[in-house]
Every structure is written in structure tokens, then in C-alpha cells.
Task: structure prediction
Amino acid sequence: MTKTIHILNGPNLNLLGKREPEIYGDITLDNVAADCSRLATDLGLETQLMQSNHEGQIVDWIHQARDKAAGIIINPAAYTHTSVAILDALNTFEGPVLEVHISNVHKRESFRHHSYVSLRADGVIAGFGVEGYQLALRRMASLLAD
Ligand code: DQA
Result:
């Protein structure tokens, strides 16, 4: 059976392509979803991309991934820097977790330098623009092939 990767996105990423394009670029989240889906097919995987502005919704999706997903790629957006709840939820998930940030958070304000999610993530990609999602997907395929 084809393994499914859940790609979870946090607050304000619904505005990707319109929001601060000088930082996040002009590609929309729908485009990211389509590109990931195409690459996933080449890698023998399936992807399901979701976005929410609500912390509890993201926690619920992580719980659902426990039964439905082989791996999680997550850009928790601002919740990266604040959410113990998302970290705790990720700690209940047994498969690989990869953290993606479109911007290079380490080059930005100091409050973006700390990530709760990194305490669980098996890998972190930051500053590669939206290409980071595809890089994470390639890494996910290698991790799941082992
Ligand atoms: C982000 C970086 C976060 O600091 C920020 O709050 C975001 C997006 C990124 O993808 O670069 O919303 O996760």
C-alpha cells in the first residue's frame, strides 16, 4: 500500500504568495500542494497537505496522522516558537517528523530562533523557500525506505 505523508501548515500560511512576498515568495500553498503531490508520485508516496490557523486543529491532525500517515512534514509557522501542545502531539507520533521553514528563521528576529518542534523533529529545513517542502519529501522517502 502506498505510504501517505501528511504535510501540516500553521497560521497565516493560507496567505502564502500574498503575505510578505519579499520573505515568503509569490508561490501559493495550492501550488506547493500540487508540486508535492507530483513529486510524491515519482517517489512512490502520496501526500495530503493541510493548513489551519488554529493550534487545536493542528494537534487533532497530528493525532489523526498516528493511524493514517507514515510521516509528517510540518511547518508550524508562528506556533513553532510557542506551542508545547504541538510538540507534545508530535511526541505521540511514531514515524519520521521533518520541520520546514520557508524563510531562514535564524537570520530573523531572535524570537524565531527557538523551536519547540525541533525537540522532536528528525530534520529541519529553513531558508530554502518553498523548495524546502520538496527537499523534505525527498528526505522522507529515504527515511521510509530504510
Ligand atoms: C515560518 C517562520 C515563522 O517564524 C513564521 O511565524 C511563519 C513562517 C517560515 O516558514 O519561514 O509564519 O515558519
Q: What stands out?
A: Strands lie at 3-9, 45-51, 71-75, 97-101, 123-126.
